[in-house]
Amino acid sequence: MAVSLNQNSGEDIPENAEMNITPFIDVILVLLIIFMVAAPLSTVDVAVELPTSAAPVQPRPDKPIFVSIKTDLSIALGDDIVPREGLGPALDKATEGKTDQRIFLRADKGVAYGDLMGVMNLLRHAGYLKVGLVGLEDASAPPSGAAAP
User: Fold this and answer.
1) pTM of the model
2) Buried b (16+ CB within 10 A) or exposed e, 42-55
C-alpha cells in the first residue's frame, strides 16, 4: 500500500470548516470531576474557641427590649420571668405587635450554646428576626481600626 505525498496529484481534499468539540467536552468533564472531588475537601469541620467582641458600641435605642437567659435556663423579658411557651405573646404585648423591632438577647456565661440557640429559635418562630446579642466590651482589645500589638 503506497501513499502519495505529492500535492500535484490533481485531487483536492475538501476542507472541513466544522469545529471538532469532542476534546473540549472531554476537558470540561475532567475539570468538572476535579471540582466535584475538591469542593467537599475545602470545607473542614474545625473546633474553634470564639473570641470576645471588640466591636464599637452601638447607640442604645430609647426603649430596648431585653430577653435574658439565666443560669437555670429561665427566660426573663425585661425584669419579668416568662415561660418558654409564653415568650411570643409576651413579646407581642411588649412590642405592640411590631415584629420588626430589634430584640436584645443576653445570656449568662454558663448557658450552653444549644440553649441560647433554642431561645433564638423561639424568637424566630414568634416572628422576631432582628435579634441583637448583648455582651460585655473587652477592655483589653484594641480600639476599632487599630492593629493588635
Assistant:
1) 0.53
2) eeeeeeeeeeeeee
Joined grid coordinates for residue 68: 435574658
Rounded Cα gap, residues 77 and 26, in angstroms: 62
More confident residue, 2 or 72: 72
DSSP state letter for 140: T
Adjacent-strand bridge partners of 77? 67, 80
Rounded CA-CA distance 111/115 in Å is 7
Q: Phi, psi (5° rounding) for residue 135?
A: -145, 175
Kindly report each contact of residues 112-115 with a partner whose C-beta sits within 8 Å and lies 24 or more positions away, as own/partner. Answer: 115/69, 115/73
**What angle is formed at CA 61 by the lines to CA 58 and CA 66, rounded to 5 degrees?**
95
The number of CA neighbours under 13 Å toward the Cβ of 44 is 6
Terminal-residue alpha carbon distance, the chain: 83
- For residue 24, give the H/E element and its range: helix 22-42
Question: Cell numbers 443576653 correspond to what residue?
Answer: 106
